Amino acid sequence: MTRALPAWLLLLGALVMARPALGQAEEFTLDESGEWVLERAPAEGSDEAVMNEIAALLASDQPAAARALADRWIRAHGDSDSPWRPRAFLLRGDALAAMGREFKALFDYEREVIQRFPQSEEYVLAIERELGIATRYARGLRRRWLGVRILGAGDIAEETLIRVQERLPGSELAERAAIELADFYLRRGDLELAAIAYDLYVANYPNGPNIRRAMEQRIRVNVARYKGPEYDGSTLIDAAEQARAFARAFPAAAERTALDDRLVQRIDDALADQMLAGARWYLKRGDRPSARFTLGRLIRKHPGSPAAQDARAIMVKRGWPVPEDEPGPGGGEP
Fold first, then answer.
1. Residues 33, 131 within the same domain
2. Which residues pair with 144 in a beta bridge?
3. Which residues have a Cβ under 8 Å from the Cβ of 131 and sit 6 or more positions away?
4. Among candidate residues 112, 137, 162, the one where a domain is terminated
5. Could you tell me if residue 308 is inside a domain?
6. Mean pLDDT computed over every residue of the chain
7. Are 90 and 12 in contact (CB under 8 A)?
8. 165 lies in a domain?
9. Are residue 7 and residue 124 in the same domain, yes or no?
10. Which of 47, 58, 50, 46 is nearest to 15 (CA)?
């Protein structure tokens, strides 16, 4: 049985199977069994040969040896004008990541490749590596301190996920970073930022692979942001409109998850409760005109809600005519 390749090794495949910056042919390819096969041997002792040797060490699960070889090459050529410098730094970062030292690998990816060689083909690969590390940090991986993973890395994840979107707007990597950032805020419990991030995803990637989940999650987030009848209900209004949009786009999913007219009705009832709480507050303060206006508006706007029944009872008890008994057209407000 073929052993499954580690995630970092699959990422490496994208590098070694790509055409080198100097226009050389591929050196290693994966055969059907998942083994690396050398296609062509470059001149012995050349920079290209060293890069291939580092890649081969990584492919054979020897990251420490790969890092040592990359270190030697970088010490000898770090200040030169060799076109292999971005490849060397990227490979050293890959070796560090494979050794579980992904935070240190970020220095090679960010400072040595992305910032210094933005025109190289390694530029996008380095951003992809950073995205992979940021995703792991966003999902709970901690940084090492004295060899133990005890340091939180959420701030690094957040910053990196934002940078990916800024550097490659509209790309597949940016799309992945966008949904990961929104999910990160949700897991962290920052509902306001989560709502903003899901909104941005829906706006920027209307046909993205995660559009349904983003639309669904922003509804749930906005409902969760509502703190009760005594607080602002604007997030519920947003959620109701988003639920209608979700039901139009994904009717089967909306029905299965109850994010359809049933949710809109529950939101309508919650908004009615908020208006009833406001009317009672006016009554407590002795502001009868405001209380009467609010109760009447509640009945017209949310006629079928439980709160509307309470509002009618309050108006009848105080001798105020309820809206449906008043002359003029009835029905709810627009």
1. yes
2. 149
3. 160, 161, 164, 173, 176, 177, 180
4. 137
5. yes
6. 84
7. no
8. no
9. yes
10. 58
Q: Check residue 201 and give its pLDDT.
A: 97
Domain end, chosen from 137, 163, 178, is at: 137
Backbone angles phi, psi at 36, to 5 degrees: -80, 130
Whether residues 1 and 125 fall in one domain: yes
Please tell me whether residues 2 and 129 are part of one structural domain: yes
Name the residue range of residue 52's domain: 1-137
Here the CATH number for the domain that contains residue 2 is 1.25.40
Residue 163 lies in a domain: no
Residue position matching structure tokens 């133990």: 148
87 within some domain: yes
The number of folded domains in the chain is 2
How far apart are the two ends of the chain, measured CA to CA in Å? 66
Classify the phi-psi angles of 38: left when phi > 0, otherwise alpha if psi is within -120 to 50, otherwise beta. Answer: beta
**Do 133 and 231 fall within a single domain?**
no
Beta bridge partners of 29: 37
What does the radius of gyration of the chain's CA atoms come to, in whole angstroms? 30
Contact status, residue 308 vs residue 294, Cβ threshold 8 Å: no
- Is there a contact between 57 and 68 (Cβ–Cβ < 8 Å)? no
3-state secondary structure at position 30: strand
Of the two residues 37 and 1, the one the predictor is more confident about is 37
CA–CA distance, 303 with 267 (Å, rounded to integer): 14
Nearest to 200 by CA among 216, 179, 186: 179
Tokens of residue 252, six digits: 């089967």
Q: Which of 41-50, 97-106, 279-288 ranks highest by mean pLDDT?
A: 97-106
8-33 per-position pLDDT tens digit: 444 444 444 443 433 344 456 656 66
Indicate the DSSP class of residue 260: S
